[in-house]
User: Which sequence fits this backbone?
């Protein structure tokens, strides 16, 4: 895995991870937290996809000309995993949004600090 | 049919979840009955499964007929059979508790409340039955999603706590996923048994170590292992009682299970102790967690919050057992999973029942309840004694094994922690016992019209749990010898 | 078997909470049948056979095992005999005062007795611990019975002390298992010969502290005087007999049947125990003299006498052990007499302080006579049984040429006299104050008092009669120390 040309993508992934984490933990607005969550998860997805790439390979659809040798195609398994994970992520985002709606109904705000103030009344 | 058990359990639960949702549109009561039926069926299957495993060994089911390591495998072995039994048993008993006090909401048509609960149970069963890393993730998230929704039912505060919980737990799940990725890319397979075979070759690679760390860290978040526990007190205290019971008694334990499974069957203890002292870290974090959580629990005045902090401490006991990484420690941890499931469920149901009947949440107001609710408070006493660790309750025996395990490793600090925390637990539980049995003063208490014991429907699960605590205590050798020792054989 | 009897009683009593007569009948039946069961095992034990039974396993290799051996049956007989008497006594006492929550009272009592018998007959440390903790929990409602803040505070203190002791014990037990691989009691100890001295020392310290709580060895004793706030039958049976004797019995087991006096002797650990016991005896006696509250004085006296027993256990000498075992019984009988008297006095006069009791001997002659008998015994005057046990204890110290310790016993005998005789004197030789308008104790209370006082006298004259106490005690002493006189 240690080819120089690939390093830049890992750095990007790490940056996204950090951005996502920052968003989730440091931002006050709840929606921004959810966005941070999504960024965070996306970083992980990218990581998987990254790992599926093989040098000199192509999209994992069998091409009659190339034959069935496995080494010529990208690894499809991570792709599949990520599809599932994306769906999970969407579901989580959906539930998070529903929660946000409830919170807003109760507290009239989506700002974390304001909500905590109102909670402790 | 038996061969299909590993997949049948989660699938049937999911099926019943849908059934419950649909029927619930017509009449709400139907959805609860359906859910109860589904839980019962899964319990029966769990028992069958356990029996089969004990006699003939593990069952492995390949999804779609694709053999591993390419295919997805579901495994029913000693460990997963034990866990499934705990999950379905607790789930079933919890579902008996009536809706209004349990979930703090009225019965409304079209609200798929029980469907969610069944999904939760299904997800948890799927986690323990999964033989495949990624599959585990999927079911873990199924379960977690259900909990986010269920927790938010309590009140406005509950929704916010649930949101916080969602964020933190999803981070945990994502870390897990990332860790899985690391492992996958190092070993080339997702199947746990397969990884076990291939791992020794790549033990030392930073990717594998990193993967292991990430996985454990992610699960630790979901398990509320100190210091990653901050989401728990709010989520558990504001969630409706049954949900809190599910969380504390089952969901957290399942997270602990994941670590145990990894420790035993994927990474093997050598990896976890040799290259990266993961178990050591878990052990010490747990030790700290036990003490800190118990101390904070003493300071609480809200009953459910006290129970929530107590849960953090109790889960840390399980973590302690994991941290010891020796047979006795793991046995203690597993037994504690069962014991704590029973104890905490009982306590949360009591909290819910009392609140429903009398509106009391603050422990100072629990004065004199012993007179008015003798059965409930008797069950409370049993559970409290079990939490402290007084024989012959189940709580004592799990601590006993943990103690023996600590002695085995000459880990005096752990011994001190276990013993000292029993004292701390005694402080906050006896305080309550004392209040409960003191004669109530003659001023009129809140809800003076609510004289008398809880309804039998509320009492039934409470008593069942309390009885279970005693039964498990009495039968603990049976359980240990037959169910648990085989799990750690080969150490 | 015997355990089950009172366990059943516990359940039944709760069931019949609304019918006082039935409830009390159950108590009596349970008490009597328990005694019968215990006695039925006596011939076996005297003959050297130990009936035993192992119920479900508590842990792999460790069963919930019960075995009736000499030491166990001594304790069991004491507890069951006295329960019968105490049951009658408590009927009188509780009826005599406006009493609430009698169901809880009798039910807890029954549970306590179950636990005590279970303790007595435990064949291994884990079983013992189980019953020990149950005893702690079951006695709590009795201590805090009155429910007023004072009682609750005493109860809290009681729990704090005893549960701490329990936790320390748990550590000791786990460690023992670690070291020895088994927990079965064995006369003379079961630790392997090559146990490291440091381990031995740690274990000894842990057991001593753990059991020291319940045995009220100073400085772990202060729960006992506070617990006097409990109703007198509770104080009588539990704190003169069951709970505290369970503590010393624990020491009997720990020193005699786990660690082994021989090993301890060689490790030089015994002097600590001796010192603690000796200090306790003297200090407690001194403190007793300062108490005006009758029950408090009795409490401190108990603390002192318990340490008589502890001291005997710390002697590596068969006679000393015999003396200790006998004193378990004798002190039990004598002290319970005194507590019964105190309770009777309170019921009749509502007076609890000694300074209020001038001339009561004229009004309650039988009661005070019994009191006097008991006092004589505790001070060590023949022919009351206290003399016998004391004699053996002193012999034990002399055998080891520990003259200082012998001196301690003699001095404390004097001190005993010093704090009991003024009571007797005042009772009989002073004129009753005008406030003292009362009659003799009610018959149902008086009878037990006379019985226990009578027992004290009886055992003083015929220590071996009927029950073979002496024989049993002697056997314990010999088997534990592995040697003759």
Assistant:
């Amino acid at each position: 895995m240690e080819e120089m040309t690939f390093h830049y993508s890992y750095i990007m992934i790490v940056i996204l991870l950090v951005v996502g984490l920052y968003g989730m933990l440091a931002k006050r607005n709840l929606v921004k937290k959810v966005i941070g969550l999504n960024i965070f998860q996306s970083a992980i997805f990218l990581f998987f996809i990254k790992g599926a790439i093989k040098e000199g390979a192509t999209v994992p659809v069998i091409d009659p000309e190339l034959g069935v040798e496995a080494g010529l195609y990208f690894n499809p398994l991570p792709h599949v995993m990520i599809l599932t994970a994306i769906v999970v992520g969407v579901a989580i985002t959906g539930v998070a949004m529903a929660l946000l709606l409830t919170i807003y109904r109760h507290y009239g705000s989506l700002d974390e600090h304001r909500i905590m103030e109102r909670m402790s009344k | 049919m038996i061969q299909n058990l590993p997949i049948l359990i989660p699938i049937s639960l999911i099926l019943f979840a849908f059934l419950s949702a649909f029927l619930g549109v017509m009449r709400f009561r139907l959805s609860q009955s359906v859910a109860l039926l589904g839980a019962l069926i899964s319990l029966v299957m769990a028992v069958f499964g356990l029996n089969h495993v004990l006699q003939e060994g593990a069952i492995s089911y390949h999804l779609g007929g694709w053999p591993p390591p390419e295919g997805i495998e579901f495994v029913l072995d000693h460990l997963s059979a034990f866990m499934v039994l705990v999950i379905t048993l607790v789930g079933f008993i919890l579902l008996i508790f009536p809706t209004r006090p349990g979930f703090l909401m009225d019965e409304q048509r079209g609200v798929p409340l029980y469907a969610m609960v069944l999904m939760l149970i299904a997800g948890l069963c799927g986690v323990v039955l999964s033989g495949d890393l990624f599959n585990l993730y999927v079911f873990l998230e199924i379960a977690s999603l259900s909990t986010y929704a269920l927790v938010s039912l309590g009140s406005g505060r509950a929704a916010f706590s649930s949101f916080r919980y969602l964020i933190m737990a999803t981070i945990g799940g994502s870390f897990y996923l990332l860790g899985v990725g690391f492992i996958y890319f190092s070993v080339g397979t997702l199947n746990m048994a397969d990884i076990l075979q291939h791992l020794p070759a790549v033990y030392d690679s930073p990717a594998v170590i990193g993967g292991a760390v990430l996985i454990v860290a992610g699960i630790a978040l979901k398990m509320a292992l100190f210091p990653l526990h901050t989401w728990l007190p709010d989520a558990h205290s504001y969630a409706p009682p049954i949900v809190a019971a599910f969380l504390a008694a089952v969901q957290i334990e399942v997270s602990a299970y994941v670590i145990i499974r990894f420790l035993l069957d994927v990474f093997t203890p050598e990896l976890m102790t040799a290259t990266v002292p993961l178990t050591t870290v878990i052990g010490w974090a747990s030790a700290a967690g036990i003490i800190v959580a118990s101390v904070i629990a003493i300071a609480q005045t809200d009953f459910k919050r006290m129970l929530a902090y107590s849960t953090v401490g109790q889960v840390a006991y399980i973590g302690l057992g994991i941290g010891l990484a020796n047979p006795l420690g793991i046995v203690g941890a597993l037994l504690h999973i069962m014991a704590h499931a029973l104890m905490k469920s009982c306590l949360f149901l009591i909290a819910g029942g009392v609140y429903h009947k009398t509106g009391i949440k603050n422990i100072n107001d629990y004065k004199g309840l012993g007179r008015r609710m003798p059965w409930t408070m008797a069950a409370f006493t049993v559970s409290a004694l079990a939490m402290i660790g007084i024989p012959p309750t189940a709580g004592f025996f799990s601590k006993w094994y943990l103690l023996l395990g600590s002695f085995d490793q000459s880990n005096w600090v752990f011994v001190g922690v276990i013993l000292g925390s029993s004292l701390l637990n005694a402080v906050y539980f006896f305080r309550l016992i004392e209040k409960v049995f003191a004669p109530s003063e003659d001023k009129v208490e809140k809800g003076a019209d609510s004289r008398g014991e809880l309804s039998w429907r509320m009492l039934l699960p409470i008593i069942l749990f309390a009885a279970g605590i005693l039964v498990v205590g009495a039968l603990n050798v049976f359980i240990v010898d037959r169910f648990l020792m085989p799990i750690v054989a080969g150490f | 078997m015997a355990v089950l009897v009172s366990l059943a009683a516990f359940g039944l009593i709760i069931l019949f909470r609304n019918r006082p007569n039935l409830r009390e009948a159950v108590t009596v039946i349970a008490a009597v049948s328990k005694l019968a069961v215990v006695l039925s095992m006596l011939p076996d034990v005297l003959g050297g056979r130990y009936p035993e039974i192992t119920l479900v396993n508590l842990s792999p290799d460790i069963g919930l095992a019960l075995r009736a051996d000499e030491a166990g049956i001594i304790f069991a007989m004491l507890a069951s005999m006295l329960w019968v008497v105490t049951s009658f006594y408590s009927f009188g006492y509780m009826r005599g005062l406006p009493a609430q929550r009698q169901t809880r009272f009798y039910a807890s009592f029954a549970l306590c007795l179950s636990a005590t018998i279970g303790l007595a007959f435990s064949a291994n440390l884990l079983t013992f611990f189980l019953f020990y903790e149950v005893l702690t929990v079951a006695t709590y409602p009795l201590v805090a019975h009155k429910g007023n803040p004072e009682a609750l505070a005493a109860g809290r203190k009681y729990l704090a002390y005893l549960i701490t002791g329990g936790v320390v014990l748990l550590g000791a037990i786990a460690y023992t298992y670690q070291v020895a691989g088994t927990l079965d009691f064995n006369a003379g100890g079961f630790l392997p010969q090559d146990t490291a001295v440091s381990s031995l020392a740690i274990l000894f310290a842990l057991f001593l502290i753990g059991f020291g709580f319940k045995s009220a060895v100073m400085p772990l004793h202060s729960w006992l005087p506070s617990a006097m706030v409990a109703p007198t039958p509770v104080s009588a049976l539990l704190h003169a007999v069951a709970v505290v004797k369970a503590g010393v019995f624990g020491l009997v087991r720990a020193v005699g049947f786990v660690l082994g006096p021989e090993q301890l002797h060689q490790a030089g650990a015994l002097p600590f125990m001796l010192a603690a016991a000796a200090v306790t005896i003297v200090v407690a006696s001194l403190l007793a003299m300062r108490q005006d509250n009758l029950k408090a004085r009795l409490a401190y006296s108990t603390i002192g006498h318990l340490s008589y027993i502890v001291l005997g256990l710390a002697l590596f000498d068969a006679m000393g052990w015999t003396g200790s075992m006998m004193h378990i019984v004798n002190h039990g009988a004598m002290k319970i007499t005194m507590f019964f008297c105190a309770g009777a006095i309170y019921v009749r006069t509502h007076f609890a302080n000694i300074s209020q009791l001038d001339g009561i001997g004229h009004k309650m002659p039988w009661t005070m006579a019994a009191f006097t008998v008991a006092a004589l015994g505790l001070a060590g005057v023949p022919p009351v049984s206290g003399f016998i046990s004391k004699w053996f204890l002193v012999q034990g110290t002399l055998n080891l040429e520990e003259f200082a310790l012998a001196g301690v016993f003699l001095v404390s005998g004097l001190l005993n006299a010093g704090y009991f005789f003024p009571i007797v004197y005042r009772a009989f030789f002073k004129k009753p104050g005008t406030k003292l308008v009362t009659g003799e104790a009610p018959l149902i209370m008086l009878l037990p008092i006379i019985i226990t006082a009578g027992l004290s006298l009886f055992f003083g004259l015929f220590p071996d009669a009927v029950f073979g106490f002496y024989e049993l005690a002697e056997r314990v002493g010999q088997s534990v120390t592995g040697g003759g006189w």
